[in-house]
Amino acid sequence: MPVLDVPGLALPQEIAALRGFWLAVAFVFGLCAGSFVNVLIYRLPRRISIVRPRSACPSCRAPIAFYDNIPIVSYLVLRGHCRRCGAAIAWRYPAVELLTGVLFALVVARFGPTVTAAIYAAFAAALVAVTFIDLEHRIIPDRITLAGAVAGLALAPLTGRGWIGAAAGALTGFGVLFLLAVLYEKIRGVAGMGGGDVKFALMLGAFLGLKGVLLTLFLASFVGSIAGAAVIALRGGGGKTALPFGTFLAPAAAVAMLVGDALIALYLRVVLA
């Protein structure tokens, strides 16, 4: 039977022909996963169990019925307000659901309907959670980064990266940011990077490997430098203006996961031309 080569698994041509179906399935699953990601974003920084109690309105604390908890649809039906008290529902909730759905579809487009795609979809969901938690609270929970690092190392053979490649990436990501944090503090006299960023880089390296984590650090630093310069120019604050680096690391990691190989190949062609 002819096959289509997809990273992580060789797909029968009949399955590959259902590409649109698999993308739609991935998108729907991503919307549902995004609902859980919203739970992580709200509860982890507040040290609330992610299992109990049931989801409730932050304003009136009324439990949310299942029919008011359908990703995207419920937000539109309720016109962005709680059914019980009428309080506005934050835009973040549908945004996270939609973003996670899109990422799941992109992962399946990249890896096909494979075990590899399932692993990287979970990784993408963690990236979304970290982005919004760090943006709002300026922290990156260990329950995501350390558990994620262990998962990345344990699952490395299933992604084709292998334990050695995952370990090399994890140690490199951790080591580079740890060294930069130490040097910055010694030179400037203040902490320039939190421990959460360093542990997050450990997790990123475990999933992305050596080349992937280096590309992630480069992209995040590049975009973060531009954003920092823009913030300083608009608001002032000098060279010590702090930005949540996790909000740059996570999107950069998503780019490295989805198109990292192509970016690296393009860079090498330009440099070696």
Task: Please tell me about this protein's structure.
This protein has 273 residues and is mostly helical. It has 2 domains: 1-137, no CATH class; 164-273, no CATH class. The protein is built from 9 helices and 2 strands; from the N terminus they run E-E-H-H-H-H-H-H-H-H-H. It has helices at residues 13-16, 19-43, 73-77, 92-111, 115-137, 142-159, 162-188, 195-235, 246-272; strands spanning 3-6, 9-12. A two-stranded antiparallel ribbon has the order 1-2. The longest helix is centred in the last third of the chain and has 41 residues, at 195-235. Mean pLDDT is 88; it is low at 1-10.
User: How large, in whole angstroms, is the Cα Rg?
Assistant: 20 Å
**Given the C-alpha coordinates, what overall shape results?**
globular
Low-confidence stretches: 1-10
Task: Give the helix level as a range of percent.
Answer: 55-70%
- The count of strands amounts to 2
What is the strand and helix layout of this fold?
Blueprint: E1 3-6, E2 9-12, H1 13-16, H2 19-43, H3 73-77, H4 92-111, H5 115-137, H6 142-159, H7 162-188, H8 195-235, H9 246-272
Antiparallel strand pairs: 1-2
Helix pairs in contact: 2-4, 2-5, 4-5, 4-9, 5-6, 5-9, 6-7, 6-8, 7-8, 8-9
Brief rundown of the structure:
The chain is built from nine helices and two strands. It has 273 residues and is mainly alpha-helical. Helix 5 (115-137) packs antiparallel against helix 6 (142-159).
Keywords:
mainly alpha, 273 residues, globular
